[in-house]
Amino acid sequence: MKRIAVIAALLATACGADAELQGSSGTAATITLQSSIEAATRKLTVRIIGPRDKSNVIVTCTSLLSGNPIDARYDTLKTAELDYPPSDPANLMISDVKKKDGVVVYVDARNAQNQVIGEGCEAGVDVEGGKTATVNIVIYPAS
Questions:
Q1: Strand 100-110 relative to strand 43-49: parallel, antiparallel, unpaired?
Q2: Positive or negative CA dihedral for 136, 124, 54, 95?
Q3: How far apart are CA 52 and CA 37, in angstroms?
Q4: Distance CA 127, CA 90 (A)
């Protein structure tokens, strides 16, 4: 596996506009790609999904990884597409994420044909104003 120096910050709106500039709050996600897909990866799609879907069912990494992460039933708070490898890691900022406890961070890796070649997920991430949490997401080859 190859760990990349990509940090994506998820800032809660409760922090105000200056939080993005100060970097004083949010969630830092370190994304690690398995070496078997690293060379073919051209984009990373990051989805921040609420802890419950629109029917009040708990969202898990298993449900996202084995299903359709863009299903309309999910409460998708934010989606960002990032180029890989990044030309400037400082631009990998996902801002204005609603303050929410226990969100799910889902990441997929895509090749030049925009096909999903790998996926990873972390559940139970708290997005809070004024605080930073660290999330490590490993991207494994898609099955």
A1: antiparallel
A2: negative
A3: 31
A4: 20
